[in-house]
Amino acid sequence: MTKGNINVSVENIFPLIKKFLYSDHEIFLRELISNATDATLKLKHLTSIGEAKVEYGNPKIEVQVNKDEKTIRIIDQGIGMTAEEVEKYINQVAFSGAEEFLEKYKDSAKDSGIIGHFGLGFYSAFMVAEKVEILTKSYREGSTAVRWTCDGSPQFTLEEADKTDRGTEIILHIAEDSTEFLEESKIRELLLKYNKFMPVPIKFGTKTHTLPLPEDAPEGTVAETEEIDNIINNPDPAWTIAPSDLTSEDYIKFYHELYPMQFEEPLFNIHLNVDYPFNLTGILFFPKLGNNLNIEKDKIQLYQNQVFVTDEVKGIVPDFLMLLRGVIDSPDIPLNVSRSYLQADGAVKKISSYITKKVADKMASLINENREDFEKKWNDIKIVIEYGMISEEKFYEKSDKFALYPTVDGKYFLWNELTDKIKPTQTDKDGNLIILYASNADEQHSYIQSAKEKGYEVLLLDSPIIPHVIQKLEGSKEKISFVRVDADHVNNLIKKDEPVISKLNDTEKESLKKNVEETINDTKFTVQLEDLDSNDAPFTITQPEFMRRMKDMQATGGGG
Ligand code: ADP
Ligand code: MG
């Protein structure tokens, strides 16, 4: 038996680990299962290239909780460690074995999915355990098993042990202040949170499986049952599969797997897949949003090689895409670093602009493939697209290809279609295109009628951020102006084909106008009587466009 000091410069790192990571104690399980997964995938790789002369078989990782013993065990059938390797990889805290492994097998290991390090690693076990044992046996022929024990001080012991099968068993003796982790329900919750899509099957207890009855079984036969492993994860989630091998049902099935409490189906999915200049896979879903600007639950989840990291993706995906759902998996996103660092990180910026571009391209291809379907879904996805248009320049630049402008009559125009259509009738004397729109078809009914009678197209733009979209369009397109149908200058701005002759003479008009104005008694409004005859309304009361916009902007929280 060897005794020695763990090679760290600080007197006792364990209180430090505990304090430093206070809020995140639960990640110990993620770290230990990641190590077990790494060890398993390393063995898979070594057997596949002929380096390891053992049977790979169908290895799994098992998690056991023993409340009486106050232990949690994580057992794998991976490469295991020799005594020298324990010395090297465990005792020299700062040394990352994964790094060395990857360095050595750099080229061949690239596609093997070996997880690499999170940076917290094995020692996160001491956030919840007062004593940790490692019982391990290397895959190498003739190696002896060893037991490493450490009680949270820098001293450890290392001795020979009897373990006949290959792999590693980590035994955590749970500390008094962490007994919540001895609850099966807590461990199950953590496994489902962090490990639901990890690449090696994870067993947690057993479950009863009912065998199918033989076809000729007499009526009343009781089906036989058997106890089988309760595997909590799906090692091959949809985002790791090539899009060409997936059907639309597969995507929907995966959506429900990701969000078990979500009963509605997504409208579209976008499969992300890039390996240069960074690695990223994932699937994004467009949920039915309507005019809803926030989704609090069932957010986009971030994974690193199939290990759940977080669903706080602010700074990684552009804000407008946080309205979507789905998964992003990338080994290139730096973890466990501060948000401000993340936002400044080059890789993160590239990822963000890649996703934006990909979503824009997908929208363009969806509308080309099936315009009718896209129009039908527009109302539920418009908020994402409009939000993207006002917040991401690159997205805005592409948006003419897919942003729709619906009319009060249920027609949908792309930008160019709209401007072509209204050019002949809605250009003022200075050559400005006047785009008429309503924000509420019921309230603005009579104005809409009046505009339609003149042959104008009236858009129905009713999302909460539309004032910002209009501002953006007016600021970047040449010679266009949006005017709400009930604005005061609709009549002045639009070129009329023929003058309207009123039945009232000027004196009658003046007195009627005065009368109405006195009744309303509010300078915010203007009374107009000019087109009394061509309109089914007796006269119109309008509010100046600038006043109305100011009010709208205030309602949606200022500029975009
Ligand atoms: P990292 O995973 O980033 O390398 P860890 O602190 O998590 O850092 O683990 C340190 C090293 O200990 C690993 O790189 C690996 O060499 C070794 N190790 C840890 N757990 C296991 C295990 N279950 N099987 C084999 N080796 C392991
Ligand atoms: Mg690790």
UniProtKB/TrEMBL annotation:
Entries under CDD domains matching the protein: HATPase_Hsp90-like
Residues at which ATP binds: E31, N35, D76, M81, S96, G97, T168, R339
Protein known as: Chaperone protein HtpG
GO molecular function, one term: ATP binding
SUPFAM superfamilies for this protein: ATPase domain of HSP90 chaperone/DNA topoisomerase II/histidine kinase (SSF55874), Ribosomal protein S5 domain 2-like (SSF54211)
Keyword Disulfide bond recorded: no
Organism: Chryseobacterium piperi
Keyword vocabulary terms for this entry: ATP-binding, Chaperone, Cytoplasm, Nucleotide-binding, Stress response
Domain Histidine kinase/HSP90-like ATPase span(s) in chain numbering: 24-154
Keyword Chaperone found: yes
